[in-house]
Every structure is written in C-alpha cells, then in structure tokens.
Specification:
This protein is of the alpha+beta class. About 40% of the residues lie in helices and about 15% in strands. The model has no long low-confidence stretch (mean pLDDT about 90).
Length: about 200
C-alpha cells in the first residue's frame, strides 16, 4: 500500500520506484496493478436521501490511453472524471467512470454513472450540466439582465460550488492526476484512490 501511495503522490516511473524500494521493475508493476484498486472508494451502502446536498463537477486527467482520452480544453489527451462531493463535509463519496475529455459535463454526468449515485439528494452543478436533473445557475437570456434575486441565487450557488474546485486543487497535489501514465481502469482507480486518501486527510483535520 505504501508503494501504491508513493506512486500516486509522486507519479514516479516504475524504474524509479524499483530503485527507491529496492525491488525489480516487474515486481513494482505487479504491485501497482494488483494492489492499486484496493485503495479505491468503497461503494456506498445506501444512496443519499433528499436531505443531503451534493456537488458534482468534472476534472480532466491527462492520460496516454486513447481509448479513454480525447483532445480536450487543456490541450492534452485527457479523460473526463466526474467527481461527487458532499456539500457540508467536502468528502468525496463517488467518482464516475472515465470518459473521453471531449465529452461535455452534461453528457458525462449521465454516462459516467454519477447521476445514479446521487440518488434522491439535491445535486448542485455549474452551467455545463444543463439538461440534467442537477441544480444549475440561472441562465441569462440573450440581451437581457437577470433580476436581482436571480443574481443573488447565482452568487450563493457559485460560493457553494467553489468547494469542489478547492477539493480538486487538493487532489491534484497527488501528481498522478496531473499526468497519469496508467491505462485502462487504472485511470479510474488512481482518481478514486486519491479521493479516498483525500477523505482520510479531511477526516483527520
């Protein structure tokens, strides 16, 4: 588990990890592929209820796996990972399945399976999730201004949704999410593992 955590934190190559731990590169590869998924988030025992408030947003994770990546707005081949956080505690209960980075959040929200994870809870999202069952900011009609009460709602909405951006900033300190050299399901388990360790760190503060 220590080797997997170091791999996620530093994003060292297999050869560098082999030298660091004094084992062969083949053993490092086996440990990462075998034990990496064990650090992922555990599935929730029950879906969130109506009284809970969740925040969902997507983050781009660069990866060389073209089956899960596409040229994205960060000018790299990336996967779109939908991440769900609890509005009150900022803990991450779930990460969606990876999709090509060119997918819009409104599509990725459904196709990644994160919409089903939300259950009956109120899910907040930015304007990119238009057409989903999430609560998004009021849209301004072309050539018109929003009423004051709608502007106030949007300001409060942005303030709450900013929590997911702060979580992304903390999670991206784990360098594997800046340039994930892993392929296939490893992109998902790397993001989910970082989310799990992010939860552990928040729980101790």
């Amino acid at each position: 588990m220590l080797l997997v955590a170091v791999c996620c934190r530093t994003n060292l190559t297999i050869w560098q990890l082999a030298v660091l731990f004094g084992i062969s590169p083949a053993v490092v590869g086996w440990i990462v592929s075998r034990h990496g998924p064990l650090l992922t988030l555990a599935p929730a025992r029950r879906k969130p209820g109506r009284s809970q408030v969740l925040i969902v947003d997507g983050t781009l994770v660069p990866t060389p796996d073209r089956s899960l990546a596409a040229s994205s707005k960060n000018y790299r081949y990336s996967s779109n990972l939908q991440v769900l956080i609890k509005g009150e505690t900022r803990l991450v209960p779930a990460v969606g399945r990876p999709l090509p980075g060119s997918r819009n959040d409104c599509i990725a929200f459904t196709e990644s399976g994160i919409d089903d994870t939300c259950g009956a809870a109120t899910a907040l999202a930015d304007g990119g999730c238009q057409g989903t069952n999430t609560l998004i900011p009021h849209r301004r009609p072309a050539g018109e201004r929003l009423p004051g009460w709608k502007e106030a709602h949007n300001t409060a909405h942005r303030r709450v949704c900013a929590r997911v951006d702060r979580d992304f900033a903390r999670m991206k300190n784990w360098r594997i999410l800046r340039d994930c050299r892993l392929k296939g399901d490893s992109v998902f388990w790397a993001t989910s593992s970082v989310a799990h360790m992010h939860n552990l760190a928040l729980s101790q503060t």
